[in-house]
Design brief:
- The chain has 237 residues and is an alpha+beta fold.
- It has 3 domains: 3-54, Structural Genomics Hypothetical 15.5 Kd Protein In mrcA-pckA Intergenic Region, Chain A; 62-125 and 211-235, 2-Layer Sandwich (Alpha-Beta Plaits); 131-209, Alpha-Beta Plaits.
- It has helices spanning 3-9, 15-24, 116-123, 143-151, 189-196, 228-235, and strands at 27-29, 32-33, 48-50, 53-54, 62-67, 97-98, 107-113, 131-138, 165-172, 175-182, 200-209, 212-213, 223-225.
- Strands 5, 6, 7, 8, 9, 10, 11, 12 and 13 form a 9-stranded mixed β-sheet that branches. Strands 2-1-3-4 form a 4-stranded antiparallel β-sheet, with no helix packed on it.
- A hairpin with an 8-residue loop joins strand 6 and strand 7.
- Helix 1 crosses helix 2.
- The longest helix is centred in the first third of the chain and has 10 residues, at 15-24.
- The protein is elongated.
- Residues 1-63 form the RNA-binding S4 domain.
- Keywords: Isomerase, RNA-binding.
- GO terms for molecular function: RNA binding; rRNA pseudouridine synthase activity.
- It is an enzyme of class 5 (isomerase).
Length: 237
């Protein structure tokens, strides 16, 4: 492949960014200084370095982000801040996008990737990939609500959701904390489920997607690459 394409895949930014890397930094192929991005290289057989550091090529990138409130699950927006804006310039790999979406006011686990096939597998309605959310609710959640969720809630607009597992952590003084596992990804899914039983979500955080659990060490707005073990969990879906 072209050298500039390999550098872009390795996280050195857009094609424009890579041109600057080739111009201003010492890029070597098999210890020979190269400035031409069109130079053909093989990730398997050629040694590529930037300022003496080896370039590790991966076809796709997989990132775990702890999404904060107020940030859009989108690749670009003319007004609001997006999850892509949270990435450093070096991590803004061409074609990277969020897998699914979290509402603007929802926090927690979001995967960013360049792998469209994996995203399709994770989002496919046929797969029923489970998502677990922690929420604070205005209203005291009851055992009757648990039973209703287990049967499948009917939204106020008439849609009948698939069964969901609702666990009550606490319910007192007019508020509740809960965890809920859903296997759908309808727009405002969790919020609409609680609206249907006369309650309101006032805080929502996604903690898990499939077997992938949000890293508790990630502060809001922080991210890291997925480990090989975590990738294996996703590929097993």
């Amino acid at each position: 492949m072209r050298l500039d394409k390999l550098l872009a895949h390795a996280g050195f930014g857009t094609r424009k960014d890579v041109k600057q890397v080739l111009k201003k930094r010492k890029v070597c192929v098999d210890q020979k200084h190269i400035r031409d991005g069109a130079c053909q290289v093989s990730p398997e057989s050629n040694e590529v370095t930037v300022d003496g550091e080896p370039v590790l090529f991966t076809e796709h990138v997989y990132i775990m982000l702890n999404k904060p409130q107020g940030v859009l699950s989108a690749t670009e927006d003319k007004v609001g801040k997006t999850v892509i804006d949270l990435l450093s310039e070096g991590d803004k790999r061409k074609g990277i996008f969020p897998v699914g979406r979290l509402d603007k006011d929802t926090e927690g686990l979001l995967i960013l990737t360049t792998d469209g096939q994996m995203a399709h597998e994770l989002l496919s309605p046929k797969k029923h990939v489970a998502k677990v959310y922690f929420a604070r609710i205005l209203g005291e959640v009851t055992k009757d609500d648990v039973a209703t969720f287990e049967k499948g809630v009917t939204f106020l607009d008439g849609y009948h959701a698939l069964p969901a597992k609702l666990d009550i952590i606490s319910a007192q003084n007019g508020q509740s904390t809960i965890r809920v596992k859903v296997v759908e990804g309808k727009f405002h899914q969790v919020k609409k489920m609680f609206e249907a039983v006369g309650k309101k979500v006032i805080y929502l955080k996604r903690e898990r997607m499939g077997e992938l659990v949000l890293d508790s060490n990630l502060e809001l707005g922080e991210y890291r690459l997925l480990s090989e073990k975590e990738l294996a969990l996703l590929r097993g879906i």
